[in-house]
Amino acid sequence: MNGETSLTIGIDLGGTNVEIGVVDRTGGVLRRASIATEAAQGVDHVIHRLVDAIDGLLREHGLSKRDIQAVGFGAAGPLSHTKGMIYSAPNLPGWKNVPLRQQFADAIGLPVVLENDANAAAFGEFIAGAGKDARSIVMLTLGTGIGGGIVLDGELLRGDLENAAEIGHMIVELEGRACPCGQRGCLERYASASAVAERLVEAVQAGDASSLSERIQAGDSITSKDVARAAAVGDVSATRIWDEACRYLAVAVINVQHMVNPEMVILGGGLSGAGDALLTPLRAHFERLKWSAASDFPRIELAALGADAGIIGAAALARSA
Ligand SMILES: [Zn+2]
Prior knowledge:
The protein has about 325 residues and is an alpha/beta fold. The protein has ten helices and 13 strands. The strands form three sheets. The protein has a five-stranded mixed β-sheet with strand order 3-2-1-4-8. The chain is globular, with a radius of gyration of 20 Å. The relative contact order is 0.16.
């Protein structure tokens, strides 16, 4: 390359692996690498390995740091984009009040941006994925919990203390299931991938019949995929729990619609792998429950970028910062 700086690097800092991508202006991932995080060995260790990995990735492809405009990180929070600080991250043991932006900028010699990973994924889908033709989108990442990201009129919505879009902790059931966040009835206690599995285990333990009973009683761990599969072949308990998850998601989509009136609500994360088995009942509940006072309904669609959304979004945010 010729020293032009149209490229940025996007990093998705996960608890197990770090995904690194060299991303162009359109959100295309030109080069990628994946390394084990080894977070328990400390921040300096991780930074050192990341700098090495990036150097290697650039060198292998005839690039140098001069070809790179900036680096964007997506990481689990709570964190501050403004301060560039990870306060604590459940998947990065021992990381407390880490000034990652400054430390990484010093180590790599490039401008660095830090963003919540759910925000980064939402921005990725907005730039180059399911939302690329929309101006306002809301993304829900249905995984261990439920991450949220809101892009409104082209801008990521962060909020006063940068805790906007914590849609997983939107209360959808008054006095409902307890959440580690301290509230009760949070969306993610009903409709995250882990909650769907957990609720089936609880139902079986309380005496409900299910084709998964034997596995559950033998102590096997059950995933949301198992629940989806059982529901698909008519398992009554699995069908009930799956359908309830879709109903709670429909309530959340309606609440989000009234809050920010997005063009699209995009569903990503593990549970979205169920595809139409998720979309069809969710859309049906949405149609049944929605208001009739206006026709400001978002399209509800699946995410398009999979695991790449995080690196593409982080890279795009690095460019715009
Ligand atoms: Zn909660």
